[in-house]
Fold this sequence. Notes:
The protein has 13 helices and 16 strands. It is of the alpha+beta class.
Amino acid sequence: MFWVLLLVPAVIISAVAFKLLFHEQERINLTIITSLTERAEIIASNIHIIVREVEKSLSQALIDIKPEQLEPTLLLWEETNPLIRNVYIWDKQNLLEYPLKGMASTLEERQFITRFDSIFVTGKAFDTDSQKAESELSIDSQSSKESLYDLAKGKTIKKGNVQTMFTPQSGWIPWFAQDQLFILGWVKKSRDGPVYGVELELASLLSRLIPDLPQIKEKGISFAILNSRKQIMHMSGDTAVEDAQACDIAVSLSNLLPHWQVCIYLDRESFTQGKGFLYVSVLLLFIFMAAIISGGLLLTSQTRKHMKDAMQKTSFVSSVSHELKTPLTSIRMYAELMLDGRSKSIEKTKHYLEVMVSQSQRLTRLINNILDFGKLEQGKKIYNKRAVDLSQLLAIIIDAHGIRIKKAGFEIKTDIGEPKINESSFMVISDPDAIEQVVLNMVDNALKYAGEGKFIAFKLENDSKDFILLKISDHGSGISKTHQKAIFEKFYRIDNSLTSTFPGSGLGLSIARQILRDLDGDLIFEPVPEGGSCFIARIPKK
Ligand code: ADP
């Protein structure tokens, strides 16, 4: 249930957040593309305006030429004006007056004639009444505005209108020859006069036009002007362009320069760097989700720990009360027997008193354990270290508790060396009371849990030059592998039920191990091969 409550919302939130983030990144990319397209359009419209202005000025200049100075003026322009590639004079009857066909002209002039041959043969393109000229005039909104101005000035350009006076007419013809764009301007000043004009030098027009164009200064973006052959005429920006045609954004330049384009190239790497927003957001999302999930995990583990603690405390209280009750009941029972005068003989009285003493000693040990547990937990237990002969200390303990052990039906085996004062090989600097508490906990456990084996063995061994091993073993049922580690945990009991045969608090082994560790030693469990348990207290010599 916990995992469902934690993971399902987390997965839903992540999925929705991912989707929103991707959507947002797409929106950002789209905004970039839109803004770049707009800039390309601005560049295109700038070029359009400039080219239109140039064309208009040239048309006006052509109209302003006096008829008698027409040829010399045009020739002078051809020579001196970098915007002009060729000039011509065309007459309906004579066709081309200038340049002349044949070897009298230069190579460039002959190419010019060939290029525009079809125009010069029919002369249709120069007729303002024809479809072509009409479309030339209404080529953009600006032209329709101009026709409006012209109307306001009393001029007329409409087809079929009766013209009272001849208005000079002009136009510009974009012309494709050999897959290349050429622009021819023409002027017709009088109804019967010649048509004359110029051919624009596009390269020079472009070179003078470009410095005034808006620049794109952003990293990873370049813009270029492509001609009708998709060749780069001009380029600005820091992106290396391998294939001129593979542009990311293309906008038609202007209808005055058909098939020319403004192209924008994006450096893929720099452009993907723009995904930084997405990467950072996804990273933050991951951190957020990790925090939620680890927080959830921490909470569960804490809750489980608290639940375990609570259960342990409950079972501790019930098992301790059970363990306290047993000796108290015996003491009370024997005291009441004596009070009732049932102990007729001295032996009986002695027996009753012995039971009462041993039971009250058991009670004391139990209470000491509980009190010590509190001190050990808080690290407040005080140890009084002095030179102790372990062999002698064990002999005293066995002597004091021998009767109790034997009465429980246990045989005592010892291998603890000869107790000698000062010179024993089992001399240690330690707290004898603490060690006695450890030994008695082991003995009590053996008496409780190893009834089948009926013997308890004490052994002292030199482990190394620094440690002595005190081994207490029995021949009981032993401890299965699964419990061998856990028995040292506080409150842990193998049989923790209230109906358990043996009362206990689950504190004995954890206290014994803690005491020995405080004294720089340790308590280890070792199974006895023939069956039974062996607890080894590792006591440092110094
Ligand atoms: P308690 O004896 O109060 O239950 P302990 O910490 O002394 O608590 O022991 C923990 C558990 O280890 C006991 O409940 C018992 O099951 C097991 N145990 C301890 N000593 C022996 C032993 N000598 N033989 C078999 N089992 C033992």
